[in-house]
Amino acid sequence: MNGDGNQRFSDEEAETILREAARLDRHDSVNYFTRDRLVETAAELGIRPEAVIEAEKNVLAQRETDLLRTEFALESKSEMRQQWSKWLGLSVMLFGINMATNGFKFDSGLWFIYPVGIVGAVTAAAWFRYITNPPTKDESQFQEWLKDRQMNKSI
Q: 112-138, pLDDT tens digit by residue?
């Protein structure tokens, strides 16, 4: 170990050293801390209990937000899959109707191509928007989803 016991570290360096030491000390076990243990450990470092409780609230709020964002992302992907599934179902149904009414005579008209093409273009445009501007990167979409979610829960 280089240096003497009076070596000085900035707050950021001390935090990094303690995080690394905690990581190295785990020995493949998962360590969980109770609030009381956090407050006790913080007191040894000269940190007020109120600051620990405030930090705990912030961490729990961030955890909740992260879970909600994950749910939002999964729901957005599911909606996109549903749009493609609906388009495919519509295509098969209209193709079946076209074949049932015209038989397999392709020279008498394939009218089903028009509605399938239009709905397909709209679905492709939604997919392109989803790929180029994912809902997970758009804070306004997330906030709108949260508002809708809260409204649905209150009903």
A: 889 999 999 999 999 998 888 887 788
Q: Lowest mean pLDDT: which of 21-30, 49-58, 63-72?
A: 21-30
- Inter-residue contact 70 to 49 (CB < 8 Å): no
DSSP secondary structure letters along the chain: --S-TT----HHHHHHHHHHHHHHHSTT------HHHHHHHHHHTT--HHHHHHHHHHHHHHHHHHHHHHHHHHHHHHHHHHHHHHHHHHHHHHHHHHHHHHTT-GGG--TTHHHHHHHHHHHHHHHHHHHHS-GGG-HHHHHHHHHHHHHHHH-
Looking at residue 76, its amino acid is S
This model's pTM is above 0.70: no
Q: Which residue has 């409780």 as its token pair? A: 53
Distances from the Cα of 31 to the Cα of 25, 149, 153, angstroms: 10, 34, 35
| CA 66 – CA 59 distance, rounded (Å) | 10
Domain boundaries, the chain: 66-154
